[in-house]
Amino acid sequence: MRIARTVAELREVLHGDPDVGLVPTMGALHEGHLSLIRRARDAHRVVVVSIFVNPTQFGDTADLDAYPRDEARDLELTRAAGVDVVFAPTAREMYPDGFATTVRVSGPLTASLEGAGRGSAHFDGVATVVAKLLIATAPRAAYFGQKDAQQLLVVRRMVADLRLPVDIVACPTSRDADGLARSSRNVRLSRADRGRARAVPRTLEATTAAVAQGAHDVDDLRARALEVLLAAELEPEYLAFVEPDTLEPVREVVAPTLCALAVAVGDVRLIDNTVLDPGPGFAAPARIEE
Amino acid sequence: MRIARTVAELREVLHGDPDVGLVPTMGALHEGHLSLIRRARDAHRVVVVSIFVNPTQFGDTADLDAYPRDEARDLELTRAAGVDVVFAPTAREMYPDGFATTVRVSGPLTASLEGAGRGSAHFDGVATVVAKLLIATAPRAAYFGQKDAQQLLVVRRMVADLRLPVDIVACPTSRDADGLARSSRNVRLSRADRGRARAVPRTLEATTAAVAQGAHDVDDLRARALEVLLAAELEPEYLAFVEPDTLEPVREVVAPTLCALAVAVGDVRLIDNTVLDPGPGFAAPARIEE
To answer: Which parts of the sequence bind beta-alanine (chains A, B) (predicted)?
Structure first.
């Protein structure tokens, strides 16, 4: 496994290989990342994992400082996973003196949910760093987790708009046995908060079950969901029912709907989401007449 | 010569050729463009000329509507010049429904001169379209005229920041026999205004001569320059003396200095510039003691 610290080194190592799979990460690798790496390993001759805690996407300096980092362990995990190249640049390599360029996705994809909660700079940071990683690596495909559903939409929009020649592959959210979505931030949860955090996936499970049983009014679904959170003394930063491609709010779950939430558990901000599917009966209710 | 109307067609025609030279244009080709094409023709196996009147860099709809277009003539000229591929997309191909991405260069490179005069959207439009053209064409080098000196700096900054693997080549401003910088907009000058427009290069020539004769105070040089313009009843939108790489204003021409101006002649807005060089004696005046 090679370790590249600069874009020049990365390009030298890859020397234009046309079959590269990229897994962009901020390090602190866990089973979720490893599942992305396995997908890439199955599909490509060369697998690159980038490890870069991107300062520009953190609105909150405390969150940036607290973000877990353990490069030695990350390198062990990538080596064991059969990764060919780790790209681990410094912030100075990515943003040298005089750096002045931002890649911005405007509109509803970035204004709501995480964009509202973390500030518009968050997705500017994400779009810019992903564009830079894709340009530096020139992969055939890049792998992202569905856990960051909005990030995935923003990246897809940016890639389509700039016509970057790469497939963006969405991979299912990886979960612990109790349902909690895997996240590098989970290690910062106290034991008690780790227990309360289970209410986050339980909220999504309860909402999915309610939809399966025929509930489709969003006000009703939201009230039930808040009860599950409240039982764990949690209050969401947002709990959204939105169209999965545009993020426009919906009032009834009569078509596949993204249910997404952000919750602070102690001082750790968790996000999670699922797609609610009301089934074919709800897709065109007006035409059901038997 | 092949004509590609879509990015997909362009990529199919180029099929990853590693030695492409790109000359980005807005059409209405003149000798200035042809000089760029000759530079590219001498250096590359494949020469691509893009022809796209980019709507997003025009703040002024009237200017966009009035911008000269003659594709049939452009294609004759490119064919005669030995161009291999013309990329002439529609606005819809470049900016389809839902397009939401902007590449922005912030700071002094875009805030002053043309950025102040034409609004910040101008360089957003330039940086975004050039990024898209470079990503679509993947050239080894791209050729730009020094006439648009600020645009050249913005493009260089964007390319460096995104690490696009392309050389940006600056080519000297091409001029008519009377000194007027060649521009597609010149055809819109009335006969009388064409005569007055000669004051624009004469202003730069007079300033260059004054510097050669030892003048270096910018207030003094500006006053002399304004006299030349005033004699033709012209008043500049800006007349700037700035550091050539940062565009920071200077008060004395003691090192190479970009002198740039924008002037409306009738309803045609012209720009021009030159680099004033005070010579080695001025580069470090404090050390001259003989």
So the answer is: 57
pLDDT tens per residue, chain B (290 residues)?
999 999 999 999 999 999 999 999 999 999 999 999 999 999 999 999 999 999 999 988 888 999 999 999 999 999 999 999 999 999 999 999 999 999 999 999 999 999 998 888 999 999 999 999 999 999 999 999 999 999 999 999 999 999 999 999 999 999 999 999 999 999 999 999 999 999 999 999 999 999 999 999 999 999 999 999 999 999 999 999 999 999 999 999 999 999 999 999 999 999 999 999 998 765 544 444 44
User: A173 by DSSP, 3-state: which?
Assistant: coil
CA–CA gap between residue A63 and residue A66 (Å, rounded): 5
Q: Which CATH number fits domain A184-274: 1.10.3720.10, 3.30.56.10, 3.40.50.150, 3.30.1300.10?
A: 3.30.1300.10
Residue A273 token pair: 């989401």
Q: So what's the ipTM on this one?
A: 0.94
- Chain B residue numbers with beta carbons less than 8 Å from the beta carbon of A157 are 98, 100-101
A104 touches chain B (CB under 8 A): yes
Which helix (H) or strand (E) segment is A130 a member of? helix A120-137
- Record: contact A106-B102, CB cut-off 8 A: yes
Q: Residues spanned by CATH 3.40.50.620 within chain A?
A: 2-171
Q: How far apart are CA B145 and CA B143, in angstroms?
A: 7
What CATH architecture does domain B184-279 belong to? 2-Layer Sandwich (3.30)
